[in-house]
Specification:
Blueprint: H1 2-11, E1 45-51, E2 54-60, H2 70-85, E3 91-96, E4 130-134, E5 137-139, H3 141-148, E6 151-155, E7 159-161, H4 175-183, H5 185-194, E8 198-199, H6 200-205, E9 211-213, H7 218-230, H8 234-250, H9 254-263, H10 267-281, H11 300-313, H12 323-335, H13 338-350, H14 357-366
Parallel strand pairs: 2-3, 3-4, 4-6, 5-7, 6-9
Antiparallel strand pairs: 1-2, 7-8
Helix pairs in contact: 4-5, 8-9, 12-13
Length: about 375
């Protein structure tokens, strides 16, 4: 028996002795036998989530780098249109699941429907601002989706390009219309005709990407950009956005662009501007601040008390010295102790609200010194 095993191992020297039992022939499927077997297609899904007034739409087909099919594209367009119609969503974020945005169309599923001449979401301007988080591969039709958005946040390692050029797949989702407006005719022709891969750094430098961020941060940075847009008054923001797109793609002349810009200012936009002007007069946003620009909500009883006290003491917009501080000073002054005197000195000398002569006069009057 030992002699027989030794002869088998000698005949098959490539078989490791540890796995000598595998020398028994087994049925095997050659790669040529599987060429005609239909590939099981992962249908993928579109993931939608909310973060306050921000709507996130994610392409989830990571098994094939989030490549799109006709069905998945229709579902993606449907979810984006649903966000456009939702009044509680102010800004959208488009991203990919699994570390890559979108590697274009799945060439295994391409059909005549893919090149339909009908109306598509990518062949118009979106009704709301969208930010695209670009990571991994953003090529072919995936790059066209990114160009459809208003802002593009790209990670350091992201690769972009029209790699479909290699196989004769045309650009049909607005890429040839949007790209020259962003990077210029010469660079657009370079990218489209050669189909070469472009690094994130080059994409940012040529103006294709809005922000260059570290790996793994594209989605978070895109959400931050969306939040920074959503916090502003929306009527004037959407007006200005519409004017820019019209001047870029639809306007025949500079004069017409300027005329459209002025003629589309509605009474609602004017009222929004008046509200903003009043907030600035109240002290919000001064010094070029972009944070804390909205008036913080207070209880109704507190607002009524403030209004009543201002009316009683004659404090309009001219006298911004807070009445509660004045009353506090009045109380500690009459106590005549050292601690109150120190507080009086610090607030009176160092407080920026008391630097004008009128504010000083109001405070001293409240303390009964004049």
């Amino acid at each position: 028996m030992f002699i027989m095993l030794k002869s088998v191992l000698r005949v098959s020297p490539k078989i490791h002795r540890k796995h000598w039992f595998s020398a028994v022939p087994r049925s095997r499927t050659c790669s040529s036998d599987t060429q005609n077997v239909p590939r099981e297609v992962d249908p993928g899904e579109i993931v939608v989530s909310r973060q306050g007034s921000i709507g996130l739409v994610g392409i989830n087909r990571p098994s094939v780098q989030n490549c799109l099919t006709d069905d998945l594209t229709l579902r993606l367009f449907s979810e984006i249109e649903r966000l456009e119609e939702d009044p509680t969503v102010l800004v959208g974020v488009l991203h990919g699941v699994g570390g890559t945005f979108c590697a274009g169309y799945d060439l295994h599923t391409i059909s005549q429907k893919t090149f339909s001449r009908g109306s598509r979401l990518t062949r118009r301007i979106l009704r709301k601002p969208f930010v695209c988080a670009m990571n991994g591969y953003c090529v072919g039709n995936g790059l066209e989706l990114a160009l459809m958005c208003d802002l593009r946040v790209i990670e350091d390692s992201c690769i972009i390009g029209f790699l479909n050029r290699r196989f004769g797949v045309p650009i049909v989702d607005g890429g040839t219309a949007r790209l020259p407006a962003m990077v210029g005719l010469s660079r657009a022709l370079d990218l489209v005709l050669t189909g070469r891969q472009v690094t994130a750094k080059e994409a940012f430098e040529m103006g294709l990407a809005s922000r260059l961020v570290g790996n793994g941060t594209a989605v978070g940075q895109a959400v931050n950009a969306a939040i920074s847009i959503a916090k502003f008054p929306q009527k004037s923001l959407l007006h200005d956005r519409s004017s820019i797109y019209r001047a870029t793609f639809d306007s025949p002349s500079f004069e017409e662009s300027v005329r459209y810009e002025a003629d589309t200012v509605t009474s609602e936009i004017v009222e929004e501007a008046k509200v903003g002007a009043r907030r600035f007069a109240e002290g919000l946003g001064k010094g070029g601040k972009f944070y804390d620009i909205k008036k913080k909500p207070i209880a109704d009883w507190e607002a009524e008390e403030i209004a009543r006290e201002k009316t009683k003491r004659g404090l309009g917009s001219e006298g911004q010295c807070n009445f509660s501080i004045k009353l506090y000073f009045s109380m500690i002054y009459h106590k005549r102790n050292i601690f109150s005197s120190v507080l009086f000195f610090l607030f009176f000398v160092l407080s920026p609200k008391l630097k004008s002569s009128k504010h000083r006069h109001n405070l001293i009057s409240s303390l009964g010194l004049i």
